[in-house]
DUF3243 domain-containing protein
Amino acid sequence: MSILDNFRDWKEFLGERVEQAKQAGMESQTLENVAYQIGGYLAEQVDPKNEQERLLKQLWDAGDQQQQQALASLMVKLVQNSDNVNRGN
């Protein structure tokens, strides 16, 4: 089973990668730029596996570059907030 098959698993995976990047000293702006590039790749190359991914792809495709960057930034914040909640912070 791929991490893309289950949205919760994908969010957890993304949250772990974001935390690793932060611990390695990656700045927030750089992290958001990487998330934007990954979002573009996923939108172009990966078929959505569930309803949440289909919605994200539709939002991505509907937006211009600035809106796509905002969506990528929000995804980073979403997984950071999920990680903090899961840790009890």
